[in-house]
Write a structure and sequence with these properties.
The protein is of the alpha+beta class. The chain contains ten helices and nine strands.
């Protein structure tokens, strides 16, 4: 019992020190001490005013492309990931990571979009920046921001130089907006009890579609195959399988790669967790098949 009390007092002291660092030196100084923002979020759950401050590190903006005849605006989310300062440490501003779902772009389109973002930031073609006042107040200059990352990738380390034209950007925009509207309509809160968003994110980032016509003129016989590449392993489902078999293949893959807890999708009485897993898999299949 004495050891337990000593442990509790030690944990309480550590937490108190971290809270003081957040209040005195800022969120990112504290995050560095505990191994990152995610760890800090877990530690600060007992302090609602501090968790609200951390929630304010997210926002939205538009990336603007000037075509020959119109403006094209790509809405993106962002997260503030650090602090940038001038040489004399007399000024500070947010360091930002842009976030977008790249699962519907092929590799060439991803490179093209990265190049577009790089040029857009360099030319300051940014609009409708939505950043919360609490986040602005963390910096001496909260109205300027330095965009260094795209989905965690440092934009200064681009290893390609892609030439593009109006039609290329218009093609990206159509694909981008179609999928973002879809994603917005089904975006759910991910937590331990509801793995829906975690499952959808995992599947969308790893699938590829192939279609073949085994019929003849006026009598098409289309076969659609969905391939998942996960850590070098390939899983396949097709329209020649029934929905039950497609779900089995996907749930087995999710279990093998620790995306979900082990479940039995064939149980007559499904527990709430299994119901949510099956619902997420069906939602994905309805979108891609």
């Amino acid at each position: 019992m004495r050891e337990l009390i000593r442990h509790i007092l030690h944990e309480s002291s550590v937490l108190s020190n971290i809270v003081n660092v957040v209040r005195d030196e800022g969120i990112f100084a504290a995050a560095e001490l505990v191994g990152g923002i995610k760890n800090l979020e877990k530690m600060l759950k007992p302090f609602p005013e501090l968790t609200e401050m951390m929630d304010s590190l997210k926002g939205k903006m538009n990336l603007i492309y000037h075509s020959n005849k119109e403006f094209i605006e790509f809405p993106v989310r962002f997260e503030i990931v650090g602090v940038k300062k001038n040489t004399w440490n007399t000024n500070s501003w947010p360091q930002v990571n842009l976030i977008y779902d790249d699962s519907y772009f092929d590799e060439d389109e991803k490179e093209l979009f990265e190049q577009f973002v790089y040029h857009t930031i360099g030319d300051l073609n940014i609009g409708n920046v939505d950043i919360k006042p609490e986040a602005r107040d963390m910096y001496k200059d909260g109205y300027y921001m330095q965009i260094d990352f795209l989905n965690g990738k440092n934009l200064e380390n681009l290893d390609h130089d892609v030439e593009y034209f109006d039609e290329d950007i218009k093609h990206l925009y159509r694909k981008y907006m179609e999928n973002n509207k879809l994603n917005e309509s089904i975006r759910l809160t991910e937590n331990e009890e509801d793995p829906t968003q975690k499952i959808l994110n995992f599947l969308r980032r790893r699938y590829k579609v192939e279609e073949k016509d085994f019929g003849w003129e006026d009598h098409p016989m289309l076969l659609k195959k969905i391939f998942f590449n996960v850590d070098g392993e390939t899983y396949t489902i097709s329209t020649f399988q029934n929905k039950r078999e497609q779900i089995r293949v996907i749930t087995d893959m999710l279990i093998i790669h620790n995306v979900i807890e082990p479940i039995d999708p064939y149980e007559r009485q499904l527990d709430p967790y299994t119901q949510k897993v099956i619902r997420a898999v069906k939602l994905f299949l309805n979108q891609v098949m």
